[in-house]
Design a protein that fits this description.
alpha+beta, Diaminopimelate Epimerase, Chain A, domain 1, 18-stranded mixed β-sheet
């Protein structure tokens, strides 16, 4: 039987998600305490941590074991949901209380995080997103995004047309026909940020299909004051919903996304698409970045 430790003093952790190599993956801050700070303080802590996102967790008040309220902040603003910080949070909480199921109340609903210890002894966290939704990309949004990226319509994969997908946060999905297009990514930072803010987008999910069950991704994140995200669990969940919506896979199905390669921070994201129209499951590992004197 698990014994969930109720935090009595705030603890700030730093972990890299979707990797076991401290030089890879996507770094995240994980703040765990008895009560969430005020939003301005969370924003200040996130800015000081300096990672693309920091998750803030505190018991949700229900008294249920492993039940937390969570909010996510980039150095620039609050974001509705962050997948890599959720994976990092699951591993951090399991290190405190042992593997098991954690219930996270996000701004838009409940996200479960199941943590287990694999045969190699490593903790693996699996989040199940809120119920996703997908729609065709509006022509004006697509035209603006292509202009900011410097891409043409001919560089897109016609078999996987543009869409806006949501699994806790909104992402514009653009699938390139060639990996070369993805490798050569260079975009107008301010133009893309303005477009994304107006459309309520968290990242662009830029993808190339390597095989039926393997994809490469790059995720511009100018709304968080980052040029690029090395691993984006929320976008991976949204992309799983997109593939199900498109009928590109037969649920239940699994696929992987490699991301961060061009940044020198390779990440591996595992995605499971259930046969119902419920949440998408995203699995990853995480490794501590804490120095012995950092807490």
């Amino acid at each position: 039987m698990l014994t969930f430790r109720t935090p009595t003093d705030p603890e700030l952790r730093r972990l890299a998600a979707f990797t076991l190599d401290p030089a890879g993956g996507n770094p995240a801050g994980v703040w765990i305490g008895p009560k969430l700070p005020e939003p301005a303080e969370m924003q200040q802590i996130a800015a000081e941590v300096g990672y693309s996102e920091t998750a803030f967790l505190a018991p949700d008040g229900t008294g249920l074991p492993g039940a937390y309220r969570v909010r996510y902040f980039s150095p620039a603003a609050e974001v509705p949901f962050c997948g890599h910080a959720t994976i990092a949070s699951g591993v951090a909480m399991a290190e405190r209380s042992g593997p098991g199921r954690f219930l996270l109340t996000t701004n838009d609903g409940l996200v479960t995080v199941d943590v287990e210890r694999g045969p190699d002894g490593q903790l693996r966290a699996t989040l199940t997103s809120v119920r996703p939704r997908v729609r065709d990309a509006e022509p004006e949004l697509l035209a603006g995004a292509l202009a900011a990226l410097g891409w043409t319509r001919e560089e897109l994969d016609p078999a996987l047309p543009p869409a806006v997908a949501y699994a806790g946060a909104y992402h514009l999905v653009l699938v390139a026909a060639s990996c070369d297009t993805l490798r050569a990514l260079a975009y107008d930072f301010e133009l893309l940020r303005s477009l994304m803010l107006a459309a309520d987008l968290t990242t662009l999910q830029l993808v190339w299909r390597e095989a039926a069950d393997r994809f490469r991704a790059r995720d511009p994140f100018p709304v968080g004051d980052d040029v690029e995200d090395p691993a984006t669990g929320a976008a991976a969940a949204a992309f799983g919903a997109y593939l199900r919506w498109r009928g590109e896979l037969v649920p239940p199905a699994r696929f992987t996304i490699s991301q961060g390669v061009e940044m020198g921070r390779p990440s591996l994201i595992e995605v499971e698409v259930p046969d119902a129209y419920g949440g998408i499951r995203v699995t990853g590992t995480a490794v501590s970045l804490d120095r012995p004197d950092s807490r």
